Amino acid sequence: MSYYVGIDLGGTNIKAGVVDGEGKLLNKLSIKTNADRAMEDIIHDMGKLAADAIKDAGFEVKDIEAIGIGSPGTPDNEDGLLVYSSNLPFNNAPMRKLIREVIDLPVYIDNDANCAAMAEAVAGAAKGTKESVTITLGTGVGAGVIVRGRIYSGFNQAGSEFGHTVLVSGGVQCGCGRKGCFEQYASATALARMTKEAAAEHPESLLNEVYKEFGEWNAQIAFVALKKGDKVAADVVDMYTSYLADGLANAINAFMPEILVVGGGVCNEGDPLLIPMREKTMSRPYFGPGVPKTRIELAQMGNDAGIVGAAMMGKSCVDDGMNGI
Ligand SMILES: [Zn+2]
Predict the structure, then answer these.
(1) Where do the CATH 3.30.420.40 domains begin and end in the chain?
(2) Which of 24, 156, 206, 241 has CA 20 to 30 A from 64's CA?
(3) What distance in angstroms lies between residue 132's CA and the mean position of ligand 1's atoms?
């Protein structure tokens, strides 16, 4: 068995662990990112955390094949850079070079949503398939596309940003500069906004009562009020799942994955979300008669997706003979 280190770089925490060649996570360490410090310090700490993780798992550096890093933003895995990140102070950050100043292993870099998709493809909901798409409904909508067992992200590694495909022309303003992106209608943030708007239009709705329990508009309120029988909440959930299904069906039409994996905190709502999401989504893609249909599954990797996916991305680079030094 060969072993890899996965590093999950986030705006709040940096997590690292040793992962075996089948995607099994052996251990997990975490430190604060403290994103306001110098880029060099953050990256050197990532290298130290990788070294600590190797030791903690009972291995030596020579037992490890490579380090994979999953980071927000757009990487350049050829040159070992993080070209751009919207929430970290990195511009053409020489990640491979700086990590290798701390630890002598090949280093590979990819986007965090792509790594999450890799984790699901190797060890999670899409295990055993070669073609899958993973869509994560969080603050935004993350997407990762796996083709022939490899991450697909275009010629410049900036691709598979499915959250920024327009669902409603001229719709809600998105942070990317366009209006009406899928992310503005299917993220947890979008559901919270729809809930707030519906509550303002319908002062009698239970949404306003449930809001008081939370003290903020979030993605849970509509589901809590729905369970109490509120009609307005039912309409909000119906609207949200319709938008969501349109976007998911677009992803199916574009990529025809064997499995479409859906994850993120919103999925914890269970059947009130999942039943309409599945029914509406599966009625929409263009499957001709006799054509095998995509299956929709819930993400299984949870908080470990970043580490496992980064490590397995590193493995795929090693297997492909990519230079990581
Ligand atoms: Zn956008």
Answers:
(1) 3-119+303-319, 127-299
(2) 156
(3) 22
